[in-house]
Amino acid sequence: MAKIHFRLVTPERRMYDGDVDMVIVRTTEGDAAFMAGHIPYTTTLGYGMLHIINDGARREATLIAGFAEVADDVVTVLSDSAEWPEEIDINRARRAKERAERAIHDATSGIEHRLAELALRRANVRIEAGSLTEQH
Q1: 136 pLDDT exceeds 70?
Q2: What residue ranges do the domains of the chain occupy?
Q3: Fold for domain 4-83?
Q4: 3-state secondary structure of 10
Q5: pLDDT tens digits, residue range 60-80?
Q6: Which of these, 83, 18, 85, lies nearest to 55 by C-alpha position?
Q7: Per-residue pLDDT tens for 20-31?
Q8: Which of 59, 39, 40 has the alpha carbon at shortest distance from 50?
Q9: Which residues contact 21 (CB under 8 A, 6 or more apart)?
Q10: Cross-strand pairs, 49
Q11: Residue 60 exposure: Cα atoms within 13 Å on the Cβ side
């Protein structure tokens, strides 16, 4: 199978840089998959999981907003925040979810409500990813 080069970069670090079979990202419009030969493409990222598939193995990470670009058989993902499942403190993520749910309930303005919703989305993604390591 032909490979596509994949780069995952956050403000803090370069998390991945190598050839893969496929990359699946959560965009603001839904999931998008990229393989060798993909047409040029740019999209905004949502909150969700990133899936890297290579030689039959699968690797996941969280993605919290950002951009993805495909050009010349290179996928570049610039994410505001990304984490490997083993980096996530699942108990901390659960506490963040509880705080966000309380903040949604207690919000007195649209801005407070929206910020609390975003915090809840992030906590849920981190819990989903952290659960992957609990299963192993």
Answers
A1: no
A2: 4-83, 86-134
A3: ATP Synthase; domain 1 (2.60.15)
A4: coil
A5: 999 999 999 999 999 999 999
A6: 18
A7: 999 999 999 999
A8: 59
A9: 1, 3, 4, 35, 53, 54, 55
A10: 62
A11: 16
Q: Can you tell me whether residue 40 is helix, strand or coil?
A: coil
Ordered alpha helix ranges (H), 33-78 = none
Per the listing, tokens 């915090």 go with 119
Residue at token pair 């419009």: 29
Give 106-125 pLDDT, tens digit per residue. Answer: 888 888 888 888 888 888 78
The first and second tokens of residue 64, run together, are 């919290």
Question: Which of these ranges, 14-18, 52-56, 80-84, 122-126, has the smallest mean pLDDT?
Answer: 122-126
User: What does CATH list as the number for 86-134?
Assistant: 1.20.5.440
The Cα 120–Cα 101 span in angstroms is 7
What's the full length of the chain, in residues? 136
Give the type of residue at 89: D
Is the Cα dihedral 111, 116, 121, 125 positive or negative?
positive
Q: Span 39-51, mean pLDDT?
A: 94
93 contacts 127 by C-beta, under 8 angstroms = yes
pTM: 0.82
